[in-house]
Amino acid sequence: MAQSRTEDLTVVTFANHAVLNEGKSLKASRPIFDDVEICVIAFAGDTKRVCVFPALEAEPNATREKGFPVSYAEVYSEQYRRFKSQEQQAVSGTPLTEAPFLTEAKRRELRALNVHSIEALAAVDGPNLKMLGMGGRELKNQAVAYLENAAGSADVVSMAAQIEKMRETIEALQADLALRNSSRSDAAAGASPQAEHGNDGNDKSIEDCTDAELHAYIKEASGTAMPPNTGRKRLIERATELATASDQAA
After folding, report:
1. How deeply is 3 buried, as exposed, middle or buried, from its count of CB atoms within 10 A (0-12, 13-18, 19+)?
2. What is the model's pLDDT at position 183?
3. Is residue 181 scored above 50 in pLDDT?
4. 188: Cβ–Cβ under 8 A, 6 or more apart, which residues?
5. Distance, CA of 130 to CA of 46 (rounded, Å)
């Protein structure tokens, strides 16, 4: 079960708030207002509690942690940057539109409850969870499952990329060894020997491979892994033996 994070449960935005300037108003004999930047913090699943602070006022927790004043604008720097650039202050996390288990009507209901991301839906708990109404617990569980499955998919994609890279390395090794054996055969027949790296210089020789790549090739070609502490010289010898045998068999 995913753990709730404070940042997933808070909805932070910045805005300009008009404040009456009594001194200027008195001098002008009419109402004069100043724009004051404010930080508005709402909470997922709670429509009754909204905190408003001056944007440049020190945020107590961050200030206590750093030992010097840290403003709300600095704590929530990305949202503040978007506010100053007049960009949409997008909520962090995965948008509700990416949740296949939600209808559009349910998405609107959740946004009205300050739940704007799948992470927030997965994190909401306690009294705030009850605010989601009937089926709220099931929605939370579906959000948790979605995030866990997404994390698992990311691991699978990463591993697939690593396997593909290793496959390419093995193919390059096999091509290089085949070229080396061909060069030896030509030399034995009295022909001019060929360059080890081919005309384009892009093939990778056994000596250029890392120990990890040699281990991978040997295991792939022979079906048996070399001991982890095998020296580099022995790895190169074994890889050459297997490549030679493979070329002769072909």
Report:
1. exposed
2. 64
3. yes
4. none
5. 10
d(CA 135, CA 240): 64
Question: Is-contact 236 176, C-beta < 8 A?
Answer: no
Distance of alpha carbon 57 from alpha carbon 63, whole angstroms: 10
User: CA 218, CA 234: separation in Å to the nearest integer?
Assistant: 11
Q: Report how far residue 174's alpha carbon sits from residue 239's, in angstroms, rounded to the nearest whole number.
A: 10
The Cα–Cα gap between 114 and 131 comes to 11
Q: Give the pLDDT of residue 202.
A: 46
Stretch 38-66: mean pLDDT: 88
Q: State the pLDDT at residue 67.
A: 92
Q: What share of the chain is helix, strand, coil (3-state, %, to 5)?
A: 55, 15, 30
Query: Global pTM?
Result: 0.43
Calpha distance 131→140 (Å, rounded)? 12
